[in-house]
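Researcher: Here's my situation. A collaborator sent me these components and asked whether they could plausibly form a single complex. I don't have experimental data yet, so a predicted model of the whole assembly would be a useful starting point for our discussion.
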Amino acid sequence: MLKLQDKKSALERSVRVSVLFAVPILVGLLTHAVGLDRQQVISCSIFMVIIMATLLFWKFRLAIAFVGIGALMGSNVLSLPTFLRECKLDVILFLVGMMVTVGVLKELGLFTWIIQSVIGVPGMTGSRFVAITVVLGAFMACAVDEVTSIVFVATLIFQVCDTLKVRPVPFVIIAVMGTNVGSSGTMLGNPVGILIGQNSTPPLRFIDFLMWSFPIMLVTLAFTMGILMWWFRKDIALLSERLEARRQLGLGLGPLVQVPYRRGLAILVGMILFIASHHHLEARLGLAPNTVLIVAPLVIAGFLMMWRHERSRHYIEADVEWWTLLFFMMLFAVAGTLEETHVTEKVSDYFGHLFGDQPSLLAPVIIGVSAIGSAFVDNIVFAAVFLPVVDKLEQTPLVWALVQGTCLGGNITMIGSTANIVALGMLEKRYRTSIRFFEWLKIGAVVGAVTCLISWGGIALLSPYMPTVEQRRQQAGTHTAVQPAHEEDAKAGSIHIDEGAGADQTDLRSQPGR
Amino acid sequence: MAMQNNVDIKFSSLLRPSQIICQTEQTVRDALLLEILRLLAYERGIGNVDEAYEAVLAREKDVPTIVGPGIAMPHAKLEALDEIVVAVATSRNGIVYDSGQPDNLIKLIILTLAPKHAPGAYLQSVSCVAKICQDPTTAEVVSSLPTREKVWNFFDEGGVALPDHLRARDIMDPIEVKLLEHDTLERAIDLFVRHRLSELPVVDKDGDLIGVVSTHELLRVCLPEYILWMDDLTPIMNFEPFAEILRKESQTWLTEIMTDEYAIVRVDEPAVQVAKQITRERTNWAYVLQGKRLVGVVSLETFLSKILRE
């Protein structure tokens, strides 16, 4: 019996290894056939190796990414300075600052207070619980990123489901989908947001997300909630029934204690205000765009570590997800290689050739492609690769289409976003149960399709009011013009500023929303 | 005969008529045990008799090995052996085997010596003899047989083979403390404290196991994960979450804290399944079921003691 199992797993491993190398080789041959040069073929193939590794050998993804970077450098496709520039240390440091701050907030009891506030709600019903879960997941994602949000919301769900003895799976799916939708609302919601915001040309501001993405998020969230409530109506009815029975016995959903939450809440609100005001501070101080945005979490984390110096090492070592961040760095560098070797330019030209330059046509294509791509590949990979393509098309609505597509596509499959994987891991660890791929896919496809359609409608509706790329360049350029020295700094790092535009591009930008 | 070759070995084949002392006049337990060991040393070769004698007595000192009315099964594990060796002694009048049970006169003594590297060998032997001696008058009947050959025939006609492996039933203990499904948290806490147990099974009216309540789970209910996140213990310094649980303990049904994650084994499953389930479920207890009915329990301590030391 054991031997049979060994043989089966050995066969499965061999198939996986074969696929890991066969697909990139196939991609290499295809790209060579369509006329890409040697460097482009190598960068495409190694990128595909890393993508396949994340799908087939999840635990080895970082190791394979390290080797992939080595292969790119060894084949002279990626140089060390390009690697250092493209691994987007600014995004990584931003995430480090956020993770440390969240670690401190957790210890200060802020999240305990939030969970207690929910389980202490009088007259709780199943529908009310689902509504709170969806909204809480979404808004916490907006404030402290999707992964942090789902960790806390899943804990709330486990507490309620354990107490009421109901199946947690539907409620985990509900929370994850609310969180993924909410993550498109702000720049902090998803690593994709900070990646796109910081690396699009010119960079997007925090306020841009609040103006153009947040309203769409609210509408998609409302529809998502409606769909989920209908889809899981039986489970919600059972929850209501159990809640009522428990209420009649005078029992709550868990112990409630007095939590000194005010310090944590003040820090969180202060951090969000600090980040939200980055554009004004940068303008006043004459700093390059998004300098304050990137530095704010680090500065706050620094102060918090000084305050709680005896725990500072713990915050850095335990609360920062170094494994994920290192993987992001490698992915960014590999994706940057595609840009460096002009592969993304070719894809962009192909898109332009195929769909013209009409945002009304391109926006749904970008949303659809990025949503489907993000459903099967980590959305940050997709964003990193697709951002240069979208940037080249020089139309503001398309950047928002990419934000929406990559965030909403995460709902389609159970591996679509980091939040899904984290929640599933928690579920598996606690209940030793897992969700079947198709159980998720059925509702995921419905929610994904509806939310993508809504976001397409939202972008179409808002695009006439969106600033053109040229207008954004001017906004970004007003406070960098007085400090030309920053231009060099920005080029050395990955903070992008106005690099000038050709006359033909100016023609395109004169249209609304471009 | 090595342990792994026990398939279809009849119990009587472990024994020769020459290894039987029939209707002994000896009345002192230790002297009789020494006599049996000397006989075995002569007949089968068991190494150093004094060492074997000390090992048998040491085991008796721990817990006397009386297994039924009038029957004792002394045993020991010896380095010198590589197979199970059995000897039998009968006493017409019976001997006082355990000073704590002077009325239980032992008339049938079955001495088992097993190789040191054979976990559970003794229990296999006990399991086998238990089948032969199901009748409570067995000791009386065997001790009345006048010759070695007739005693040997008794075991041979029993026809029972040494089991190939131990089963869960061979190592389980009976359930002494359990909770019923309609009990409250109050009763569970009382039993935990009174019996100093860390886990209690919960059964329904038919005796079917429906869950387990553990002190660990109770603690988890009092201190859920969201409270443990906090670094500052001030809000719970006076056990506030516990106070809330205590206030409602008489209204809280066991199902609130009952878990369905526990180790179970079927009564006829190999005893090694107990080890597997205890390890897999990361617990200290495995519950033994017949159908759905709870019939016994094996603690990790019992398992280690019975398999590795007996």
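Model: Some features of this prediction you could bring to your collaborator: Chain B touches chain A at residues 222-227, 229-232, 234-236, 240-241, 244-245, 248, 251-252, 255-256, 261 (CB under 8 Å). Residues 166 and 271 of chain B are 5 Å apart (CA to CA).
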